[in-house]
Amino acid sequence: MTGTIFDIKHFAIHDGQGIRQTIFFKGCPLTCWWCHNPESQSIKPEKFTRVNKLDNKEFLKKVTIGYQVSVEELFKTISGDKIFFEESNGGVTFSGGEPLMQSEFLFEIAQACKQNGIHTCLDTTGFAPEKTIQEIAGVIDCFLFDIKLIDNEFHKKYTGVSVDGILRNLKWLDKNHKNVILRFPVIPGITNTEKNLNDIKAFIATLKNTHHIDLLPFHTISKSKYKRFNKEYKMGDTPALSDDDLLLLKTKFESTGMKVSIGG
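Above: the chain sequence. Below: its structure as tokens.
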């Protein structure tokens, strides 16, 4: 069995506990306005021309984003970092894109890791059939689960999909005592409105076994990627939040009794 990925990050420290290896799956059913990895949205490999400059000269290089890899090949790469996982209580994180778009491949590689004592995290939008979430939960040790907008119409406007199934999947994970860390992208004027913050805090209050949320600050680093891949950048000149704004937001979420971190 093969899957399509577009990057592997070794020695990651922001995608779960300990030192980790993060595997970036290609393909995502969401089209979030603020997506930091626009090259991840299409499941197909994409070609573009990179311009390198040296001594006032330009050199063009053809680059392909995305490639196929087998479960065996990928597991061999993951296993190469196992000593670092063991020393730091780390493991592997499956990110994207949305790994659940390739659920069969994800299950096989996560199962191989779990059978060999490697801790597994899934960084997910939660957008998948309930059956898929429930099956994958058997081989995932920790879910890094995005929660963006509660209002369904706003969610469809800014991400392209309904939020209803996402919230059902989150409730199922919580009800079944799965290890979940919520991730809230703080997007000025979109997710950090007073209404959405109140809606999210009200929803969080219904969860019984989920006690940690990461605030993920919006940044403009990815803006150049949209130009490079000839994609529309919908965030315009939206500025990032200040550190003071993030600390204030952290305090608001801590009032719900949640453990709150800035960054993931």
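Residues 2-262 form a domain with the TIM Barrel fold (CATH 3.20.20.70).
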